[in-house]
Design goal:
With 347 residues, this protein is of the alpha+beta class. Helices cover 65% and strands 11% of the residues. Keywords: Kinase, Membrane, Transferase, Transmembrane, Transmembrane helix.
């Protein structure tokens, strides 16, 4: 902080000294360059010191008394008065130093010089305007960066909350399926436990991730459907025509949630099986099922599609779409590529 203040001081000193050289270059009252240069250094140090003192005082008063945005007229008149005082002090010191140290024959010049005071006042107000402008711009940019950071942190926290609501529901249903198999077929139950362990491992390993590859998600849903098929047999069928494309990602558990929802909200038996289909086109992944009217096997909790849509929005800025098309219930998922998603969530 101290080094920065020193650098700022010397940068301003060089600027003022350069202006002094330009303005006084044609002044022939100085008989040699040394006096001219020494006078310029003294004058520049004085102006910079007084200017920085003014800035510190103004900043202090703004924090204690008023703010430019809430009281603009008060601030304007205060700056004009303060600028006039600054200009008057500059005029007095300028005249005193010149007369007593450099040009004693200028003693007949008065301490009050309206032209010099007006000029210094204009310079003061101009410099103050630029200073306030850049301070405002800096504050706006800092606030924008902070807002973006908070937005991303809130999005991640919200995502984890939504995900936590889904995982207990999935685990409960899986354990219910397992409980019905243990006493029927030990070997099948063993395979069921193996698949379930892979599902749980997937959930644990991907717990803190906002997305997984489509290939990983398909492996996950295939393990899940093994459990379903073991319980219901041909009453529920899964047809997969998804094309595995490189760098395509989805929120973890997407296809499993949609498969589970299809089973929950439709009746299913061997005579009227439930057909679940996975397929895609260039821009979307589709999960569809035929509508089998009847009493659903589980009451809806309202979590599935709503939370899934929010998860997609947090990941890519797009919602999912769903509805009945030609007698089938169809869920339409936007295809997300990893690079585009990383830009959206700021990874």
């Amino acid at each position: 902080m101290k080094n920065k203040a020193l650098h700022t001081f010397f940068a301003r000193l060089l600027l003022i000294y350069g202006l002094h050289l330009i303005i006084k270059w044609g002044d022939e009252t100085f008989h040699h360059f040394f006096a001219f240069t020494r006078r310029g250094i003294y004058f520049s140090i004085f102006v910079i010191s007084l200017w920085m003192l003014c800035l510190y005082i103004l900043d202090f008063l703004k924090k204690k008394w008023f703010t430019p945005r809430k009281q603009p007229l008060v601030y304007l008149f205060f700056c004009l008065g303060y600028g006039y005082l600054f200009a008057l002090i500059t005029n007095i010191v300028y005249r005193y130093v010149d007369v007593h140290y450099f040009r004693t024959d200028w003693g007949n010049i008065g301490y009050f010089n309206p032209v010099l005071i007006l000029g210094v006042l204009v310079l003061f107000m101009s410099a103050l305007s630029f200073y306030e402008y850049f301070q405002t711009e800096l504050t706006v940019k800092e606030n924008q960066l902070l807002a973006e950071k908070l937005k991303k942190e809130n999005a991640i926290a919200h995502y984890k909350l939504l995900k936590a609501q889904i995982e207990p529901h999935f685990l409960f249903n899986s354990l219910s399926v397992l409980s019905s198999l243990v006493y029927k077929d030990a070997d099948l139950a063993s395979d069921f436990i193996l698949k379930l362990s892979r599902i749980l491992r997937f959930s644990i390993d991907r717990n803190d991730q906002m997305y997984v590859s489509l290939e990983e998600e398909l492996d996950f849903v295939n393990n899940y459907f093994f459990l379903i098929h073991t319980r219901f047999g041909d009453a529920i069928r899964l047809t997969n025509h998804l094309e595995i494309r490189e760098h395509v990602i989805v929120p973890p558990g997407t296809l499993q949630v949609l498969t589970e929802n299809s089973i929950k909200h439709n009746s299913h038996n061997k005579t009227h099986p439930l057909e679940i289909r996975l397929y895609n086109d260039q821009d979307f992944i589709y999960v569809s099922n035929n509508l089998n009217p009847g009493k659903p096997s589980h009451a809806s909790t309202g979590v599935g599609l709503i939370n899934l849509s929010k998860r997609f929005y947090l990941l890519c800025g797009k919602n999912i779409d769903y509805g009945v098309v030609a007698g089938d219930f169809v869920v339409k998922l936007p295809i997300i590529f990893k690079n585009n998603s990383d830009e959206n969530i700021g990874h």
